[in-house]
């Protein structure tokens, strides 16, 4: 239709020109004007023929059919892996469930493994097998403003008693202005590096000696609240301030009653919270730099202040510094190779209160001009400040994919003897000791770990002990990420 319309339009225009030209008397036009009209007519006919040919060629071309867009093929559901979370709900509120179980087997020449050579609450506690911990982790988003985390741990004591404890359960803000964040609940105190790490993230089978002696077998953790501020600097820089209860087993150097046993030559009273002075206060500052494209350094300084249970008005102060350095080349494959170095030093100033027992106790026996009781306490001890300190340093070398070698050195001691020690000699709670621990770890997959470790222990007044531990661990489901 389009081609016929163009054709007839051009022909009618040409016919009009011919009629108009023939209607005029030839003798009234100049000969050259007639010739010009004939020339224009020939050119117009040629253009019409060219247009007809072009239209014909276009009409003869085959029509290109546009294939319809097929419906999207159904996506096969993602296959679950052992490290994937077991997720309940989704969107702005969800819960991820995971579990990590850690076990140890081995032997030692020490007669006092639990609480003797091994100070950590999750350390191997006997010859044979130890359930270091089967930890159930629950973590997720409560709503757009808060996230939560809980760790429930199952253990077996050396006597075979089942122990279940709530290690952590806290709520944390996600959207406070000014780079502030608040955490509240039961949580591991922000002090140094090792105290905030769960045992499955350690580079060794057991806890460092200085942590077990000054912070306690389970570390410092209690109900409370923590405020942190991410300082707006070009590098990572964060300040922490926490307030927690100061009593209980997880406040070892503070208002713990030590289960009624003597500690530093005194019986202790846990007490109750009556004023703000009965709380445990902690501070920490952490900073991190990229030394190069392959090296990172993180350093921190921490402090903890609070009352202890040795007297009516006695306090404890603990100070710590820590550093963590890691090298990983730019061409690392799955994180290997790498070298990391971690060290911490801590100092405790313990204000031990005056202590006195009933001189007429039937359990008393003579000890010079003093009375000595069967509970191992001298009857009268004056108030004094006891200072203890220690350090550990460890290096890990990921020399081959899934293979890591490690070496750690521990040292703990005191500045001077206390009154109790001048009577009895060295107190195991303050005696000088050191330990060397080489180990080798193999990760069969990202879900499991096998570690072999040897400990060489030298304790003042006791002697040298040797221990060998084989640790194995597996992971199911997601687990809350750990700090760098």
Write the layout of secondary structure elements.
Elements: H1 2-23, H2 31-60, E1 86-88, E2 94-108, E3 128-141, E4 146-156, E5 162-173, E6 180-188, H3 209-215, E7 221-230, E8 236-245, E9 279-290, E10 295-307, E11 315-327, E12 338-352, E13 355-356, E14 364-367, E15 370-373, E16 380-381, E17 384-400, E18 403-414, H4 419-424, E19 433-442, E20 448-459, E21 463-477
Antiparallel strand pairs: 1-2, 2-3, 2-21, 3-4, 4-5, 5-6, 6-7, 7-8, 8-9, 9-10, 10-11, 11-12, 12-17, 13-16, 14-15, 17-18, 18-19, 19-20, 20-21
Concise overview:
This protein is mainly β and 484 residues long. It has helices at 2-23, 31-60, 209-215, 419-424, and strands spanning 86-88, 94-108, 128-141, 146-156, 162-173, 180-188, 221-230, 236-245, 279-290, 295-307, 315-327, 338-352, 355-356, 364-367, 370-373, 380-381, 384-400, 403-414, 433-442, 448-459, 463-477. The relative contact order is 0.12.
Strand order of the largest sheet: 2-3-4-5-6-7-8-9-10-11-12-17-18-19-20-21
The best one-word shape is elongated
Helix content: 10-25%
CATH superfamily of the largest domain: Porin
Low-confidence stretches: 1-10, 12-30, 359-372
**CATH architectural grouping of the largest domain:** Beta Barrel
CATH topology of the largest domain: Porin
Question: How would you describe the overall organization of this protein?
Answer:
The two termini are 76 Å apart. The protein has 484 residues and is mainly β. Helix 1 runs antiparallel to helix 2. It is 13% helix and 44% strand. The protein has two domains: 2-60; 86-477, Beta Barrel (Porin), CATH 2.40.160.10. The chain is elongated, with a radius of gyration of 41 Å. It contains four helices and 21 strands. It has a 16-stranded antiparallel beta barrel with strand order 2-3-4-5-6-7-8-9-10-11-12-17-18-19-20-21. Strands 13-16 form a two-stranded antiparallel sheet. It has a two-stranded antiparallel ribbon with strand order 14-15.
């Amino acid at each position: 239709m389009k081609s016929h319309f163009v054709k007839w339009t051009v022909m009618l225009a040409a016919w009009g020109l011919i009629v108009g030209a023939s209607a005029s008397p030839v003798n009234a036009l100049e000969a050259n004007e007639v010739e010009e009209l004939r020339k224009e007519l020939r050119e117009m006919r040629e253009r019409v023929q060219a247009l007809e040919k072009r239209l014909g060629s276009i009409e003869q071309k085959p029509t290109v059919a546009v294939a319809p867009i097929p419906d999207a093929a159904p996506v096969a559901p993602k296959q679950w892996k052992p490290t994937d979370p077991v997720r309940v709900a989704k969107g702005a509120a969800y819960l991820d469930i995971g579990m990590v179980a850690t076990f140890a087997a081995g032997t030692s020449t020490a007669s006092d493994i639990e609480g003797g050579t091994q100070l950590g609450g999750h350390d191997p506690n006997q010859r044979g097998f130890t359930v270091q911990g089967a930890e159930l982790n629950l973590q997720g988003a409560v709503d757009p403003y808060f996230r939560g985390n809980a760790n429930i741990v199952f253990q077996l004591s050396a006597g075979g008693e089942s122990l279940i404890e709530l290690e952590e359960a806290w709520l944390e803000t996600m959207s406070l202005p000014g780079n502030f964040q608040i955490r509240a609940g039961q949580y591991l105190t922000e002090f140094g590096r090792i105290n905030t790490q769960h045992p499955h993230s350690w580079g060794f089978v057991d806890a460092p000696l200085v942590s077990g002696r000054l912070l306690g077998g389970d570390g410092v953790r209690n109900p409370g609240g923590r405020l942190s501020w991410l300082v707006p600097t070009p590098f990572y820089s964060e300040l922490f301030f926490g307030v927690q209860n100061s009593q209980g087993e997880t406040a070892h150097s503070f208002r713990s009653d030590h289960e009624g046993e003597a500690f530093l030559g005194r019986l202790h009273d846990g007490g109750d919270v009556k004023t703000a002075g009965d709380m445990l206060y902690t501070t920490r500052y952490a900073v991190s730099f990229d030394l190069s494209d392959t090296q990172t350094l993180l350093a921190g300084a921490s402090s903890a202040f609070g009352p202890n249970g040795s007297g009516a008005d006695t306090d404890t102060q603990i100070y710590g510094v820590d550093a963590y350095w890691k090298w990983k080349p730019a061409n690392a494959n799955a994180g290997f190779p790498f070298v990391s170095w971690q060290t911490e030093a801590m100092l405790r100033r313990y204000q031990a209160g005056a202590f006195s027992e009933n001189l007429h106790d039937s359990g008393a026996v003579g000890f010079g001009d003093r009375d000595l009781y069967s509970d191992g306490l001298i009857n009268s001890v004056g108030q004094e400040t006891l200072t203890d300190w220690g350090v550990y340093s460890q290096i890990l070398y990921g020399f081959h994919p899934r293979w890591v070698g490690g070496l750690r050195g521990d040292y703990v001691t005191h500045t001077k003897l206390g009154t109790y020690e001048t009577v009895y000699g060295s107190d195991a709670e303050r005696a000088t000791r050191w330990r060397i621990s080489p180990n080798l770890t193999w990760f069969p997959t990202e879900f499991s770990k096998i570690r072999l470790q040897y400990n060489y222990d030298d304790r003042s007044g006791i002697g040298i002990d040797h221990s060998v531990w084989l640790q194995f661990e597996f992971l199911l489901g997601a687990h809350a990420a750990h700090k760098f």
